[in-house]
Specification:
The chain is α/β, with parallel strands linked by helices and about 190 residues long. The chain contains four helices and seven strands; from the N terminus they run αββαββββαβα. The longest helix is centred in the first third of the chain and has 13 residues.
Length: about 190
């Protein structure tokens, strides 16, 4: 890797020391690991070095149970958004929540195999997830099973099926994104 300073590359997985600075976050994570051992993948749960951040990886079939536990036990009601990731063999859905009383952001991660990218929808538990679950289906091809209102929300109705533009292996075979780019500001008379 000539010309690359590998020391400046920092992994996103940066667990925090178990110190006074992260005491509240570790108390939350310890409670989750104690109360939900069958739902979480413990070795992929951690407190981030950035203050007030906890990451929890959950088995797809236990997602709904885990969300209910967090709502009932930790007053997790403020949903922020859902993001997706292409990890190669797996795809990942990341639900981002904020615990107001504890002032902690919690990211709940669900990995699904690329060849069977399904997990249960949580829209009946978290109504704010309806739109973004459609987005993750449309852009990554990750399917929240049981979603009550499957529809297009980002891509045009004419977008080809089985083409997910945020996957790393998508190559834009018909140059769809190239045609959608503007060539600078429109002339005033076209506005």
């Amino acid at each position: 890797m000539s010309g690359t300073n590998t020391e400046s590359i920092v992994s996103e997985h940066r667990p925090a020391e178990r110190d006074e600075t992260h005491q509240r976050e570790y108390a939350l994570l310890d409670a989750i690991l104690r109360d939900q051992p069958d739902a979480v993948i413990a070795e992929e749960c951690y407190v981030h070095v950035q203050p007030r951040r906890v990451f929890v990886r959950v088995h797809p079939d236990k997602l709904r149970e885990f969300i209910t536990y967090m709502q009932d036990t930790h007053d997790m009601w403020q949903f922020s958004t859902l993001s997706g990731r292409d990890l190669g063999d797996d795809l990942q859905a990341n639900y981002h929540f904020f615990l107001n009383d504890q002032k902690i952001a919690v990211t709940i991660r669900v990995n699904v195999p690329r060849n069977h990218p399904e997990y249960p929808s949580i829209t009946d538990l978290v109504p704010g997830a309806e739109f973004v679950e459609n987005e993750i289906r449309e852009l990554f091809g990750i399917f929240p099973v049981g979603h009550p209102n499957v529809r297009r929300c980002e891509l045009p109705e004419t977008w080809p099926a089985e083409e997910y533009p945020l996957r790393k292996d998508w190559t834009d075979p018909r140059k769809l994104m190239e045609r959608s780019k503007t060539q600078g500001p429109k002339p005033r008379e076209e506005m």
